[in-house]
């Protein structure tokens, strides 16, 4: 059998790294495992380099069940960047939780699952990648197993994730039954515009199953609970990585495998996007817990990204990829602040953020910039991303663009409420918060990325163009 | 009566019913009828239970069950590989070694964390 | 009248099983019962996959392979799920889903 293993190099390296961290944890005595975070971060950086080096090395493996095109590589770069930043920002939090080696290796396996998902060329690889990611996340969500909220979030996640993947699988089996193939591009050739009832049912189940993963309304019920209960670094990785990976496969399945049924699912996706944007933004307004606020705002963000799927065009794919990439920096920036703030004060309530600008100007600034980027205020990166996304739909779906615009304004309201608390209110406790090295580095990287991508999006836009173009090649 | 492929199933069903039911009916007809209090005990022979019988089992069993599941499911991959061992060759052999190695790391982890100790 | 068993029979069986599982997931209050119902749904999918593989693509074993992977992943999921149920039982002394109400909006 001839297999070009160089295409698989990043995945193999990451799997070895994950196992290696687990084994290292067994060999090193319990008290001295603080260095594992750095090993993980450097290892992720190495894998990231390997992935970027493979930019020109495209191809498929095992008769098309594993696709390495620039589209997949771009998403892998996104996941690895996110994993690197989360690892850098969470070391102190993890040291306080204990069991570092298991935590980092679970994190690496979740990343591996996302990478497999981005490259999935058939339904089996899709399912395996999805479940590798999900099971690793289930373990991570209830990682503070003595704390009730964390375990409760875990049980909600495991039951709902199990149900959603069963629904997804049933949909996949129906598509397989109608088309007689599980390979995505072969399914794409077999699907005709003629609406077969079983296929329509299968597609509806796919929407439900993947909608759960991206937390689109009405499949979002788990999101706020799990986001609030999970350890904060896990929440940020869940919000970024799991969502981006699910979008990667959502685009692949719907645009490559089901183009014949475009007329049937495009309206469904448009309505889903509109409802998600509206509900996410409106329910975010009364929240008092910062993690819940960010959870609802991430639901709204999923709605914005769904807009890119509506037209099923190269421009739409480009918008999704661009937005997913910059969303990494905005979300991780905000969540790193939340993580560190919790480490120092032990609170996640918005009112306790009073006067953060006096206690730590950098943290307050990163929070505000990240949130304004999510709201889409120029000249931050989020504005450019939203511009690319909504540009694709103004011709045919003006009402959706309108909803997006109005709800963006609504989101500014609740984001600015947090900013006001941080900048206007007087702090109860005036002691300044001193940042540790890696956390400060994470914050500065995310802030710079959000600013630079907003002011000068040209180069990234070029990269995304070639990546989106490769999607239609095979 | 048309003999279709299902007639065999029907005959088997009737035969099974006759044998099973016949045993019960026969024993009902010929068994001695002596009514004593002991006949109404849960067990006719052996010792009476002490305390409530609805006790909970220790969760120590649970970890063994989990480990069992892992190595139980592993065989599902070993069988097809073993059947086609000759034609798959060295590549598949190395792949299987890697697969088993990963599982053994898992077992080592469980061992080291004390999952195999009886508490 | 006796007919030969066709793909449709398997599909109906699987749909029924899936429906029962889905109903159980939504209606049951006991966490372990919900986990069992999820297994039921996954097994419905397995029936579907194997039947389709047998009737539509008898030369390939795609569906059966898929079923093997589903079984494996289901085992992993149940392992994690049971571990979490044990953990929450230690915290709360309950496996009733109605009792898990610390997180609410």
Automatic annotation (TrEMBL), chain A:
Residues 120-408 form the NADH:quinone oxidoreductase/Mrp antiporter transmembrane domain. One of its GO terms (biological process) is ATP synthesis coupled electron transport. Its EC number is 7.1.1.-. The keyword Translocase applies. It is a multi-pass membrane protein. It is found in: Cell membrane; Endomembrane system; Membrane. This is NADH-quinone oxidoreductase subunit N. It comes from Desulfofundulus australicus DSM 11792.
UniProtKB/TrEMBL annotation, chain B:
This is NADH-quinone oxidoreductase subunit A. Belongs to the complex I subunit 3 family. GO terms for molecular function: NADH dehydrogenase (quinone) (non-electrogenic) activity; NADH dehydrogenase (ubiquinone) activity; quinone binding. It catalyses: a quinone + NADH + 5 H(+)(in) = a quinol + NAD(+) + 4 H(+)(out). Its EC number is 7.1.1.-. Pfam families: Oxidored_q4. The keyword NAD applies. PANTHER family: NADH-UBIQUINONE OXIDOREDUCTASE CHAIN 3 (PTHR11058). It is an enzyme of class 7 (translocase). The chain crosses the membrane at residues 6-30, 61-82, 88-111. InterPro entries: NAD(P)H_OxRDtase_bac/plastid, NADH_UbQ/plastoQ_OxRdtase_su3, NDAH_ubi_oxred_su3_sf. It is found in: Cell membrane; Membrane.
TrEMBL record, chain C:
This is NADH-quinone oxidoreductase subunit K. The keyword NAD applies. GO terms for molecular function: NADH dehydrogenase (quinone) (non-electrogenic) activity; quinone binding. It catalyses: a quinone + NADH + 5 H(+)(in) = a quinol + NAD(+) + 4 H(+)(out). Its EC number is 7.1.1.-. InterPro entries: NADH_UbQ_OxRdtase_chain4L/K, NUOK/Mnh_C1-like. NDH-1 is composed of 14 different subunits. Subunits NuoA, H, J, K, L, M, N constitute the membrane sector of the complex. Keywords: Cell membrane, Membrane, NAD, Quinone, Translocase, Transmembrane, Transmembrane helix, Transport. Belongs to the complex I subunit 4L family. GO terms for cellular component: NADH dehydrogenase complex; plasma membrane. NDH-1 shuttles electrons from NADH, via FMN and iron-sulfur (Fe-S) centers, to quinones in the respiratory chain. The immediate electron acceptor for the enzyme in this species is believed to be a menaquinone. Couples the redox reaction to proton translocation (for every two electrons transferred, four hydrogen ions are translocated across the cytoplasmic membrane), and thus conserves the redox energy in a proton gradient. It is a multi-pass membrane protein. The gene is nuoK. GO terms for biological process: ATP synthesis coupled electron transport.
């Amino acid at each position: 059998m001839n297999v070009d293993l160089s295409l698989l190099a990043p995945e193999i390296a990451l799997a070895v790294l994950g196992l290696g961290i687990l084994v290292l944890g067994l060999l090193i005595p319990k008290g001295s495992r603080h260095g594992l975070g750095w090993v993980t971060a450097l290892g992720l950086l190495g894998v990231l380099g390997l992935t970027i080096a493979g930019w020109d090395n495209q191809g498929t493996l095992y008769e098309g069940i594993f696709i390495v095109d620039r589209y997949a590589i771009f998403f892998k770069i996104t996941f690895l960047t996110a994993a690197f930043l989360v690892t850098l920002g969470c070391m102190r939090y993890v040291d306080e939780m204990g069991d570092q080696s298991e935590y980092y290796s679970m994190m690496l396996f979740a990343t591996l699952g996302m990478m497999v998902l981005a490259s999935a060329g058939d339904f089996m690889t899709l399912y395996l990648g999805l479940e590798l990611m999900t099971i690793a996340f289930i373990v991570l969500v209830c990682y503070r197993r003595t704390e009730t909220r964390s375990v409760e979030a875990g049980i909600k996640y495991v039951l709902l994730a199990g149900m959603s993947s069963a629904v997804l699988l049933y949909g996949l089996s129906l598509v397989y039954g109608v088309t007689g193939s599980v390979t995505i591009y072969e399914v794409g050739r077999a699907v005709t515009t003629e609406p077969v009832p079983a296929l329509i049912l299968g597609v509806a189940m796919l929407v439900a199953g993947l909608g759960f993963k991206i937390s689109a309304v009405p499949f979002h019920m788990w999101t706020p609970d799990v986001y609030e209960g999970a350890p904060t670094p896990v929440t940020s990785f869940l919000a970024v990585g799991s969502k981006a990976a699910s979008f990667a496969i959502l685009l692949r399945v719907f645009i490559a495998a089901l183009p014949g049924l475009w007329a049937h699912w495009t309206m469904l996706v448009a309505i889903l996007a509109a409802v998600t944007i509206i509900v996410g933004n409106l329910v975010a307004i009364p929240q008092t817990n910062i993690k819940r606020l960010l959870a609802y705002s991430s639901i709204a963000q999923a709605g914005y990204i769904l807009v890119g799927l509506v037209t099923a065009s190269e421009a739409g794919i480009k918008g999704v990829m661009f937005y997913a990439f910059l969303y990494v920096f905005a979300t991780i920036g905000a969540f790193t602040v939340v993580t560190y703030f919790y480490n120092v004060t032990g609170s996640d309530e918005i009112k306790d953020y009073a006067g953060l600008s006096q206690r730590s100007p950098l943290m307050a600034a990163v929070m505000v910039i990240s949130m304004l980027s999510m709201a889409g205020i120029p000249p931050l990166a989020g504005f450019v991303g939203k511009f690319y996304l909504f540009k694709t739909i103004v011709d045919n779906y003006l009402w959706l663009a309108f909803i997006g615009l109005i709800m963006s304004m609504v989101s500014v309201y609740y984001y600015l409420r947090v900013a006001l608390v941080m900048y206007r209110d007087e702090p109860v406790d005036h002691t300044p918060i001193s940042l540790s090295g890696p956390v400060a580095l994470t914050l500065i990287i995310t802030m710079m990325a959000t600013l630079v991508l907003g002011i000068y999006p040209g180069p990234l836009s070029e990269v995304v163009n070639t990546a989106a173009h490769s999607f239609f090649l095979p | 009566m048309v003999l279709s492929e299902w007639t065999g199933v029907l005959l088997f069903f009737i035969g099974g019913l006759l044998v099973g039911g016949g045993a019960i009916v026969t024993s009902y007809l010929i068994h001695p009828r002596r009514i004593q209090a002991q006949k109404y005990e849960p067990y006719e022979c052996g010792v009476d239970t002490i305390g409530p019988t609805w006790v909970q089992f220790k969760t120590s069993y649970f970890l063994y069950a989990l480990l069992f599941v892992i190595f139980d499911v592993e065989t599902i991959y070993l069988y097809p590989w073993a059947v086609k061992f000759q034609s798959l060759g060295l590549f598949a052999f190395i792949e299987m070694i890697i697969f088993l190695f990963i599982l053994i790391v898992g077992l080592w982890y469980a061992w080291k964390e004390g999952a195999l100790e009886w508490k | 009248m006796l007919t030969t068993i066709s793909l449709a029979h398997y599909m109906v069986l699987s749909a029924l099983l899936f429906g029962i599982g889905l109903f159980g997931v939504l209606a049951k209050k006991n966490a372990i019962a919900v986990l069992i119902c999820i297994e039921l749904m996954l097994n419905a999918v397995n029936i579907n996959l194997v039947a389709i593989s047998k009737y539509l693509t008898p030369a390939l074993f795609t569906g059966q392979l898929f079923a093997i992977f589903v079984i494996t992943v289901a085992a992993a999921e149940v392992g994690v799920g049971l571990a979490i149920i044990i953990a929450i039982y230690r915290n709360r002394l309950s496996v009733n889903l109605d009792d898990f109400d610390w997180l609410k909006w």
